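Homework help board

Subject: predicted structure for assignment chain

Our instructor gave us this sequence and asked us to write out the predicted structure in C-alpha cell form, then describe one feature. I got the C-alpha cells but I'm not sure how to describe them. Can anyone check?
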Amino acid sequence: MAKDTKKGYQCPLEATMNIIGGKYKGIIIGHLINKTLRYNELQKLIPQATPKMLIQQLKELEANGIINRKLYPVVPPKTEYSLSKRGETLIPIIIELNKWGINYLKEEDIPCKYIDEINKNKND
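My C-alpha cell output:
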C-alpha cells in the first residue's frame, strides 16, 4: 500500500520497505532482472498471486518508478514489464536477499522448489 510520501518517513528503511515490501514486489523485481516479461508470463511465474494482487503490485512498482510498463495497441492488448533505471539499482539488493533466503531455507531444512531446481541442474 502506497504511503503519502508528502508527510515524510521516520527513517530511510521505512521508505525502502514501503516501495519494495509488498507481498510479491521483491519476487516481481527478481523475475524482471535482465528480462522483459508480459503480464501472463509474470502470472505463470508467480501462480500464488491472485490477478488482482499482481496487478496492484505492478501498479505500485510502476508508480514508484521501479518498473516500466509498455502497452502495445494491438488486439488483444499486449503489456510488457521491465525494470527501470531506478529498478536496476535494486538488483544487488534482491540478489543478496535471495542468497540469504537460500541459506535460511537450507539451514532450517525447509523445502523450496527453487533450491530443488538449482540442485537438479548441478547434478545434470
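Reply (TA_rk): Your C-alpha cells look well-formed. For the description, you could write something like this. The radius of gyration is 16 Å. That's the kind of observation they're looking for.
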